[in-house]
Amino acid sequence: MTLALVSSDFDNRLRTAVLLVAAFFGSLAIAELLWRWLGNRMARDRWVGPNYRGQPVVAVGGLLTVAASIIVTIAVTAALVIIEPGGHGIWAVVVGDRSFVLNRSLEPAAIAGGLATLVLLFGFGWLGYRDDTRGATGDTTTTSVRGFAGHLRRSWHQRRLTTGVQKALGGVVVALAAVQLGTWGDVSDLVDWVGGGFDSWVEGVQSLLGIFTAAASPGWSIVTMLRGALIVALAANLANLLDRVPGRATKAALAWWLVGLVPAAITASCGPGCFTQGPDAADWGVWAAGAVGAAAGLLRSELAEKHMQGDTGVNPLGAVLGMATIAMYSAALEWVVLVVLAVLNLASERWSFSRIIDAVPPLRWLDRLGSPYRRD
């Protein structure tokens, strides 16, 4: 028996729009279903903490955000491998004599991007979870520490790193790995590494990360890699800084995705200096859609104050948005984004975002929209 599935020609923008909608609403539905199935079971001592009103809620609801994002990221990556940018008849599956034949070559860029997104979700998710749980139990002073400077002072006085500092340092490492993998990684020889010896795996890791190889991308430099990693890390921290009241970080992420990423993804516009040219740049908007959709799926229950995203959820959410931004924006715009993120992160050390938002009526209205407990 032979089963052949062949795609027809279609417009890249239509392809991107369909994937954006599917990733967002698919992730939204998965996250909401996960909360309905697992929400009550998550009310265990270690996972419950006081919210901004002092009421006990599930403090690591972000676990479900990360889980839904991972599921959709894997599905989206598979779709991007199957649906080749440019839209030709690209794949066929043949079933017969107990053999399966995939009649197409893999897309290294899509696989590398998917792996980079998973690195961000797992890495920042784990660091955030560790801070959410150990920061409130093993390090009883962490919850009273304000800002990164406060964590540094506390670490200096205690002669040990607080979970906040550990998360910041670990976040930079994760960001560097994800940026290098997602923008310059070469996974075309991935299959050849499996079953090879130690030397094969060493060469494979080098090729995967795009380092110590002669085939590095023409635009690669230490500056571009560090700039991208800083944007990712600062975006993750900014999402954490906004996560002070229910829904604020999710609403900000929705605005970032809708205004900053969706138009660029659909138009596939990318100026000189961006990591991925042409239609490939749009793929990052799709991966970001999975993370934003997952957070949106938990927004209703979050506004009802049944749980908090916590660092577990908002840190990977911000990191994925930052990663999509550096992959889709030109070098000049990246510098602008980096400056804006740095200013906002530094400003949080001195001023309260909550006070600023409350002082601006439109922001105050958006911030309280949908919350039954934060009405005037």
List keywords for this structure.
two-stranded antiparallel ribbon, 376 residues, mainly alpha, globular, 15 helices, 64% helix
Structural class, by secondary structure, is: mainly alpha
Number of domains: 1
Measured between the Cα atoms of the first and last residue, the distance is 67 Å
Strand content: under 5%
Strand order of the largest sheet: 1-2
Helix-strand sequence: HEEHEEHHHHHHHHHHHHH
Low-confidence stretches: 1-10, 85-105, 136-145, 212-216
Query: Nearest-angstrom radius of gyration?
Result: 21 Å
Report the mean per-residue pLDDT as an integer.
77
Q: What is the helical fraction, as a range of percent?
A: 55-70%
How many extended strands? Answer: 4
**In one word, what is the shape?**
globular
Main beta-sheet annotation: 2 strands, antiparallel
Tally of helical runs: 15
Question: How would you describe this structure to a colleague?
Answer:
The chain has 376 residues and is mainly α. It has one domain. 64% of the residues lie in helices and 4% in strands. It has 15 helices and 4 strands. It has helices at 12-38, 62-82, 108-134, 147-158, 163-184, 190-193, 198-209, 222-242, 248-267, 279-297, 299-303, 310-328, 331-347, 353-359, 361-368; strands at 48-50, 56-58, 93-96, 99-102. The strands form 2 sheets. Strands 1-2 form a two-stranded antiparallel ribbon. Strand 1 (48-50) and strand 2 form a beta hairpin. Helix 1 runs parallel beside helix 10, helix 2 (62-82) packs antiparallel against helix 3 (108-134) and helix 4 crosses helix 5 (163-184). The model is unreliable at 1-10, 85-105, 136-145 and 212-216 (pLDDT under 50).
